Amino acid sequence: MPIAQAGIFAFGNPSHAYLEFDLLDGRTAADLIAAIRAFDEPWTTGAGVNVVVGLRPELWKQIAPSDTPAGVEGFHRDLVGIEGFTMPAKQHDLVIWLAGGEYDAIFDLTRAAIAALNDVARIADETASWPYRGNHDLTGFIDGTENPQLAEAAEVALVPDGQAGAGGSVLLLQKWPHDAAKWEALPVKKQELVIGRTKADSVELDDKPADAHAAKTDQAVFGKILRRNMPYGNVSDHGTMFVGFSSDQTRLSKMLESMAGLIGGQRDALTYYSRPVSGAYYFVPAIESLRPV
């Protein structure tokens, strides 16, 4: 199998940045990939930083049509669920995800990436993230309980050998601000019903409601994904960066439809306390595809 970008599976880094770019007018997919290849960090791990590069699927298809999985597409239309709940489409052309041990290295490499791409793409969104109480999100619950073991993660996240795009992955990136005051006003027992798990040790509730988050995103129903979520923001404006990898885009899109109430007829209870403000799909190619030729 082609070698995947190592940062997809590089757990344990406390400092993160997500950089999304748009092509400048008059620039092409070929210009963008040339600039990425000139910026040598996407296929190496330097300065203690892991770098993951993904492109809008349609753009990657222009660059490498034989290396693009069939049917993968960008997040180009708002996902409108029941009760007017909407997941907005904020698709960009390129994402660079940086993760490392110290934020100064992330900061410097962020500047380097923006400078390297300055002639072909503009920075459209930049978000810094950091861990909260180990593996918790800012609701106070453990995040990623259903993640596969690392030995199984590649099978979940990567396009299988022999298929177009082998060694690559489909990435869903969303920013979910939390209504902290509304959430924290709930007693813990009510919070547990919303999530569908105990808060102290993340044990799934036997009698969880049908609209609990654990029920609406049940990976036994929709298929396994690899979640690399991280908290972001400050005291007055914070939430979760949803970072989901899958070998199959349908697993991700069906989970979103379920959360929005288009499957099952009920919205995910968590969506009354947190709403996405962005949404984009990227294809993260195998490392060989990003190397200079």
Describe the protein's architecture and organization:
- There is one protein chain.
- The protein is of the alpha+beta class and 293 residues long.
- The chain has a single domain, classed as Alpha-Beta Plaits (2-Layer Sandwich), CATH 3.30.70.
- It is built from 10 helices and 11 strands.
- It has helices at residues 29-38, 57-63, 103-116, 150-157, 180-184, 188-195, 213-216, 219-222, 249-259, 287-290, and strands spanning 15-23, 49-55, 79-80, 86-87, 94-100, 121-129, 169-177, 226-227, 230-233, 238-246, 280-284.
- Strand 3 (79-80) and strand 4 form a beta hairpin.
- The mean pLDDT is 95.
Q: Please, what is the average pLDDT?
A: 95
**What is the architecture at the second tier of CATH?**
2-Layer Sandwich
Number of domains: 1
CATH class assignment: Alpha Beta
**Major sheet:** 5 strands, antiparallel
CATH topology: Alpha-Beta Plaits
Shape call = globular
Count of helical regions: 10
Itemize the secondary structure elements and their pairings:
Blueprint: E1 15-23, H1 29-38, E2 49-55, H2 57-63, E3 79-80, E4 86-87, E5 94-100, H3 103-116, E6 121-129, H4 150-157, E7 169-177, H5 180-184, H6 188-195, H7 213-216, H8 219-222, E8 226-227, E9 230-233, E10 238-246, H9 249-259, E11 280-284, H10 287-290
Antiparallel strand pairs: 1-5, 1-6, 2-5, 3-4, 7-10, 7-11, 8-10, 9-10
